[in-house]
Specification:
By secondary structure, the chain is an alpha+beta fold. The protein contains ten helices and 13 strands. Helix 2 runs antiparallel to helix 3, helix 4 crosses helix 6 and helix 7 crosses helix 10.
Length: 359
């Protein structure tokens, strides 16, 4: 097992390229802190793999297809295939977790019957996720299996992953056994839900591909052939932010990469990331990152020179992420609140200094 943090690679359709422990073996198993993610929030993504997470310390929230599940230490979750999801800590307190991401390719080619079972159980009309607690025997065993796989999984090619793979297949079998048909599958409401999810993927894909363009709310809504108000509603429900916030987030992420990895000037970066002026770029960057672009670049270079990559959060916690105790309790789940009040404007990020639309 290694605690080297693996990169997160998300494509324009929000699909993630999972960086597995060993090349060619579709199994990821690591123990990580939430501070590995900027602002304690993982990028929104989906993948065909099944995902399993066990919270070791602290509290983690999971966004899955428009629902938020709060998990405390000792609890966990199984996420079905191809579901839009991400993890975050609302209060930005450190949390540690073990995570296993297993591709069906580990076992689906063993027989046609197994392949059909995988297809049925991971279909969009099946459960999106199952929460795990220690109160039920099979869930308790699943939580232990997540930790065991992380402990057993090697990160070097000269070590055998066989034991980890065997446990991962058993864990996936457990998940497939307990994913059931959702109650409203086949209803008009469910069909509408499916259309909404595809609409969100179309709109977020447009933003990821064209974040440097002066996108308007009409442009984003048109990608899914829906109205402006419906666009805002779907973003709030499935993405957890407004279209404006999501667009700015993509621009800032790209700007951070350019500041850290290139010698481009601030004016060039502002233009490349879709900001109409360097001053507006600087103001937005400072609000979101806590430093000006120039100061951020200096910190990155200083930390790289010293051998410590910039991590503004981890110095507040000990080696095990135990910054403070969090209250214990059961798993909580609720819908993301719908709604987005559209305002007049052109560029979706409000490059005139104001947001063109906001929640």
């Amino acid at each position: 097992m290694s605690e080297d943090f693996q990169p997160i690679t998300v494509f324009s359709d929000l699909s993630e390229q999972v960086h597995y422990n060993l090349p060619g073996l579709p199994l990821y198993a690591h123990r990580d802190p939430m501070s590995r993610y900027r602002d304690f929030r993982c990028s929104r993504h989906w993948h065909r793999d099944l995902e399993f997470l066990h919270v070791i310390t602290g509290e983690i929230s999971y966004f899955i297809n428009g629902r938020i599940v709060a998990l405390r230490a000792g609890e966990g979750i199984m996420v079905n295939s191809s579901r839009l999801h991400y993890t975050f800590c609302p209060d930005r307190r450190e949390s540690w977790f073990t995570c296993v991401v297993a591709g069906p390719a580990l076992f689906e080619r063993l027989s046609p019957d197994i392949a059909r079972r995988v297809e049925r159980r991971t279909a969009q009309n099946m459960d999106d996720y199952i929460t795990l607690t220690n109160e039920t025997a099979w869930q308790r065993k699943a939580l232990q299996s997540i930790d065991d796989i992380v402990a057993l999984m090697p990160n070097v090619t000269d070590a055998s992953p066989l034991q980890a793979v065997a446990q991962a297949i058993a864990l996936c079998d457990t998940a497939l056994e307990h994913f059931h048909l959702v109650d409203d599958a086949g209803t008009p409401e469910y069909a509408c839900e499916q259309r909404n999810r595809f609409a969100v993927l179309a709109m977020t894909g447009l933003i990821q591909q064209r974040f440097s363009d002066p996108l308007t709310l009409d442009d984003i809504a048109s990608a899914a052939s829906i109205s402006r108000s419906q666009c805002c509603m779907l973003f709030r429900r499935y993405v957890g932010s407004t279209p404006n916030e999501y667009l700015i987030e993509q621009r800032i992420e790209h700007a951070r990469a350019l500041l850290a990895e290139t010698g481009m000037g601030i004016n060039e970066i502002a233009k490349a990331c879709g900001f109409s002026s360097p001053s507006y770029f600087t103001n937005v960057f400072r609000r979101r990152c806590g430093a000006t672009p120039r100061a951020f670049r200096t910190m990155q270079r200083d930390d790289t020179t010293s051998g410590n990559p910039l991590s503004p959060h981890t110095d507040r916690y000990d080696d095990y992420g135990m910054s403070r105790d969090l209250p214990s309790g059961g798993v909580a789940s609720h819908h993301v609140e719908d709604g987005c009040a559209a305002k007049q404007g052109h560029d979706a990020t409000g490059n005139d200094g104001k947001d063109a639309f906001a929640a």
